[in-house]
Amino acid sequence: MKPSRWLAAGLVAVATAAALNVVPATAGRPYDPTTQSLRDLAKRHGLYVGTAVDMAALDNAAEPRYRELAGSEFSTVTAENVMKWESLEPTRGTYNWGPADELVAFARQHQQRVRGHVLVWHNQLPTWLTEGVADGSIDTAELRKILRDHITAVVRHFKGQIWQWDVVNEAVSDPWDTPSTLHYKGFWAQHLGPGYVADAFRWARAADPKALLFYNDYNIEAFGSGNPADDKTQFVYEMARDLRARGVPIDGVGSQGHLGTQYGNYDTLQVVAALRKFAGLGLATAFTEVDVRSQMTAGVQAGDSAEINPRLQASAANFSTLLRACLAERHCLSFTLWGFTDKHSWVPGAFSDPPEGLATVYDENYRPKRSYQELKADLIYSGPPFVLPRVPQQPRR
Ligand code: G3I
User: Fold this and answer.
1) 291 lines ligand 1 (CB under 6 A)
2) Is the distance from the beta carbon of residue 90 to the nearest atom of ligand 1 less than 6 Å?
3) Is 348 inside a domain boundary?
4) Contact in structure between 232 and 267 (CB atoms under 8 Å)
5) Record's InterPro entries (predicted)?
6) How many folded domains does the chain comprise?
7) What atom in ligand 1 is closest to the CA of residue 169?
8) Of 309, 319, 350, 384, which has the fewest beta carbons less than 10 angstroms from its beta carbon?
9) Cα-Cα-Cα-Cα dihedral sign, residues 269, 274, 279, 284
């Protein structure tokens, strides 16, 4: 071969290795993918793997493992609480950026992207806002202005530092709500009507034209009956389709992925079908808050392996279902866990009758569980032709 051909062949080999993110074997030590972190294994797929971060745990010097793993295993982070309205603007017009800025700095230090959570939600609102509306001192026109000002201030503050914003969170009711016909629910729909959703996306886009803007919700992992009156995924799909049709700058739909081993849950193909349908609207998707909780029976609490093992196994299967679906759909950009250790999970605090727990991929002593190993295996043993790198999403103008 001519020297120029050798050079060309060498360049192709290097480029291919780089594209596949193949790590060469070091002297005497073959490359072992099972020792790699989730974030490194996900890189080959162009996928970001993330976690919600509890700032109190991150700052706890007595618990260094939390910080180590948050930095080494994940390529994207989400503030579990500190970017919510009650944290950012506890007093009207006075912002407390400290903890959220600290997370953004942590992400920069660890070459991580940030998912911003959350601009508009009916929970964790400051009392000055909810009480002002309740006692009539804040009227509808003022409330709309307050919402616009908050979105503008927050998105501007973090401009250029947030990859994906959860602009609107959990706007849609559940079949167990009253009335049972699905509808726009909660504080914002009640006081401003459903038009606030489109407004919020437009205000967010104006404040940071480069951030990807997401609608985020739970129980939308798969389609049901196809009737928007009782199928939440269909309701959200039609909402996103209408927003797109009206030129509202929505770029993605986030599926939270809060599952439980006591439920029927889904198979991978159902979840792929849902992601694909959203992609058909020109939208990116992401799993944004994945965890899989289990009922903590007396047997589980007493350490009975006959009760614990099936839960660990079912949990791993559910994590895997969502990750494999995400890998299969090229517009699924990131896979974020809602916390990574049972030591710091919202689940025990939120479900006490019956108690629930075991929801994350590391146990309370930071030992990786079967679910962690399965996530790893999915990242290792998948690839072309059915699993290809992600298609980057461009913010819609
Ligand atoms: O900050 C106060 C603290 O001052 C007080 O001493 C303590 C006593 O209970 O409460 C602290 O606030 C708690 C807050 O988390 C911060 O730790 C609240 O009680 C508690 O309710 C709150 O829970 C959060 C929950 O959202 C609120 O709805 C969870 O940590 C958080 O994981 C959870 O996250 C949500 C997502 O944002 C949206 N999707 C569902 C997901 C799970 O509910």
Assistant:
1) no
2) no
3) yes
4) no
5) GH, GH10, GH10_dom
6) 2
7) 38
8) 384
9) negative
